[in-house]
Amino acid sequence: MLGAIEAGGTKFVCAVSDDQLNIVERISIPTETPTETLAQVFAFFDRYPIKSMGVGSFGPIDINEASATYGYITSTPKIKWQDVDLLGQLKARYDVPMAWTTDVNAAAYGELILGAANGKSSCLYLTIGTGVGGGAIVNGEILHGFGHPEMGHIKVKRMESDEFEGICPFHGDCVEGLVAGPALEARVGMKGQQVPENHYVWRTQAYYIAQALMNYSLVLSPEVIVLGGGVMHQQQLFPLIRKELKRLMADYVALPEMEAFVVPTMLGNNSGIIGCLALAKEKNNK
Ligand code: ADP
Ligand code: ZN
User: Fold this and answer.
1) 161 CA distance to ligand 1 middle (Å)
2) Residue 234 alpha carbon to ligand 1 centre in Å
3) Closest ligand to residue 235's CA
4) Which amino acid residue places its CA nearest to atom 19 of ligand 1?
5) Ligand 1 lined by 133 (C-beta under 6 Å)
6) How many angstroms separate the alpha carbon of residue 171 from the centre of ligand 2?
7) For the chain, how far is it from start to end, CA to CA, in angstroms?
8) According to CATH, where is 3.30.420.40 located in the chain?
9) Hey, whose CA ends up nearest to atom 15 of ligand 1?
10) pLDDT tens-digit map of 67-78
């Protein structure tokens, strides 16, 4: 059996599957203290003969294998999870090969293997939810460097009439500070779900999201960009973002056809957990 954990700031999703990634059982556990949450994680996986595991975690996390804190969740704003050796605690319980990456990298991989980027060798996955986070697949592999990408925190040019200061505790008006769900809600003073389809704010969102996508496209040249997260449930954003991205590119780079280039997630809330299972499968083959 393959094991997978999508470790999120509000919930941990755990799943086991067969070698074809058919999910046998899946549970969702609220993210409490590490001790409480891991006790439930162990209770779940103890019941299965797991031969490898894929873990996609909220971050920032340490993915540098040469580092003394490899496998740790590092400077998260969730105090109880700061400097927690998540991978180490899992390895101490289960002596099997384990893949370790961010939740968004896992989601990008899931979309590549079974979702909207199936058949491609590159893609970018961006979630716009409680935060903004992105993962990239290049030549079939997750892009890692000195650490993992933090695509939500790039700078964008401000809209002239926009006086919203942004809510990122580190950078103020980075992309996350401008367009994540809580920023959108602070901007308009209502829940994201309640904002009408024709509200001006969707143009503002699209203006900034398109700039971010332009930057990612120029640097990484992904074959497809998959957009997920709660805010992207607002389907009217897609045409607005595509139009703005096309305008910004000004025909300099021949992008793939827009409708096929900027697409919604195909796996929905499952891209992360499926990506983790696929990574577990790979570990097993190595
Ligand atoms: P998370 O990022 O924590 O995994 P979500 O992707 O569901 O979770 O993102 C939650 C955020 O998305 C909330 O801040 C909320 O403002 C926003 N959100 C959720 N649903 C919608 C919606 N239908 N329209 C606009 N915003 C939404
Ligand atoms: Zn930031």
Assistant:
1) 25
2) 10
3) 1
4) 230
5) no
6) 4
7) 16
8) 2-106+269-285, 119-265
9) 181
10) 999 999 999 889
Ligand nearest to the CA of 167: 2
Alpha-helical segments (H) within 98-253: 103-114, 175-179, 181-188, 201-220, 237-249
Is the minimum distance from the CB of 147 to ligand 1 under 6 angstroms?
A: no
What is the pLDDT at residue 103? 98
Residue of 231, 240, 269 best suited for mutating to test ligand 1, as the one with most atoms within 8 Å of CB: 231
pTM for the whole thing?
0.97
Tokens (6 digits) for 86: 């998540």
CA–CA distance from 250 to each of 14, 162, 183, 211, 265 (Å)? Answer: 44, 23, 29, 12, 26
Kindly state the average pLDDT of the residues 170-184: 97
> Is 248's pLDDT higher than 80?
yes
How confident is residue 285, by pLDDT bands cut at 50, 70 and 90? confident
The CATH number, out of the four listed (3.30.420.40, 3.30.160.250, 3.50.50.60, 3.10.100.10), of the domain defined by the range 2-106+269-285: 3.30.420.40
Strand 123-128, strand 225-228: pairing: parallel
CATH class of 119-265: alpha beta
